[in-house]
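Hey, why these numbers?
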Amino acid sequence: MKPITILIADDEAEIADLIAMHLEKEGYLTVKALNGRAAMHVVQTQPVDLAILDIMMPELDGHEVTRQIREQHRMPIIFLSAKASDLDKITGLVLGADDYMTKPFNPMELVARVNAQLRRAMQLNQPAADTLSSLQVGGLIIDPETRTVTIYGQTVELTPKEFDILHLLASHPNKVFSAENLFEQVWGESYYDSGNTVMVHIRTLRKKLGEDPKKFIKTVWGVGYAFNG
């Protein structure tokens, strides 16, 4: 079994070394980058299973690195940043990050989050046989095997979380999911005060689905969201 490689991109070498030390104790291989351009070079030249990115990096910031990674890769991305506002967190998640931790941080908590994201990624890459069939509603086609979405033949570019939300809702037409249900099933973590995160993802997902976004995802006021089956 090939070793799992984790990219650590942070311009503070001491922090990158600390993270690497704890992850290597867990048996992971680590590759460090001190700026965003170096991080992209790593992603483009060797296999990476998960990336831990600082936001405020020179050359390319963490947001731009995430945009470029998401053009070609689906690896889990965890932001680790001193930027702690709700807006910063939501922005990171909407761009395609899978988790967000603020500095200062507990290294063991970061390791636990890395483990959780890798477990989830492995589950998504090994779906059960009965979940491989495409879902089709009108001109919308959702293919969980290739993780692609098209509307009347036109590809819709979704982030991994947007795809997961859409596929979950479409797999249970007309079933109402609360924001808590969606967060816990898609992010795989306990729900605290993450309603805004879910709301922002639903909003951007609807926008990408076209001119009549509520045709597919409806809001059940005071309860949650459902897919129009």
User: Anything to note?
Assistant: The chain has two domains: 5-125, 129-227. Confidence is low (pLDDT under 50) at residues 127-131. Residues 107-125 form the longest helix (19 residues). The CA atoms of residues 183 and 191 lie 6 Å apart.
